[in-house]
Design brief:
Layout lengths: L7 E6 L4 E3 H15 L7 H11 L5 E3 L5 E6 L4 E7 L9 H18 L4 E8 L20 H4 E3 L1 H8 L3 H15 L1 H9 L7
Parallel strand pairs: 5-6, 6-7
Antiparallel strand pairs: 1-4, 2-3, 4-5
Helix pairs in contact: 1-2, 1-3, 2-3, 5-6
């Protein structure tokens, strides 16, 4: 879906292999400040803090979480997504944040002037038609700049209306294949023999 709007769209990519010592320190400072509520998440200032130190100090080899979706725009902006389930564990957000910051640090170590965005994507909203409940992420993620949920995510990938088109396809296929789907799931409703 994203290939129509982006110059590059790939999955399961690697951000890089090296982070500078100074970038590690900045990442730890950011995570500590957010964990203790000494600071508030601000994606753009966090990226700039990492940009300032992305090549300072010894470069350390790292093995990072794979990027679920890597996009590059026609104007050389990079968007790196980590896809999550609809109700991620609230305790995991510190590690999600660290992953996003490490991706930034490894990419900037190679391309220090690059315009980069790292985000969490949740493909659908189980609360629909109510807004997605984001309270568990507040305080760790810069919600407007680090999280895309359901329609916001799919429309970002494919353009306005993509989410609704996707829902329409699922509904149409569900109706067309209903008998097959029902027969498949009926196997699981049989009492044990």
């Amino acid at each position: 879906m994203a290939k129509g709007r982006f110059k590059v769209a790939k999955s399961q990519a690697t951000a890089g292999e090296y982070i500078s010592e100074e970038a590690f320190k900045v990442i730890q400072d950011i995570v500590n400040d957010l964990t203790t509520a000494k600071g508030s998440p601000d994606k753009f200032s966090e990226i700039e803090r990492l940009r300032e130190v992305c090549q300072l100090g010894k470069m350390q080899k790292v093995k990072l979480t794979k990027i679920d979706l890597w996009l590059e725009s026609q104007t050389q902006e990079w968007y790196l997504f980590d896809l999550k389930t609809v109700k991620p564990n609230a305790g995991g957000f510190k590690e999600f944040k660290r992953t996003l910051l490490e991706w930034v640090a490894t990419v900037l170590a190679k391309e220090p002037t690059l315009k980069i965005y790292t985000m969490i994507a949740i493909p659908y909203n189980p609360y629909e038609p109510q807004p997605y409940n984001r309270w568990t992420m507040r305080g760790m993620l810069d919600l407007p700049n680090e999280l895309k949920v359901a329609e916001e995510f799919w429309d970002f990938l494919g353009g306005p209306g993509s989410y609704q088109d996707l829902l329409d396809v699922f509904e149409r296929i569900g109706l067309e294949l209903r008998l097959e789907i029902d027969a498949y799931f009926a196997k699981f409703n049989q009492p044990p023999v």
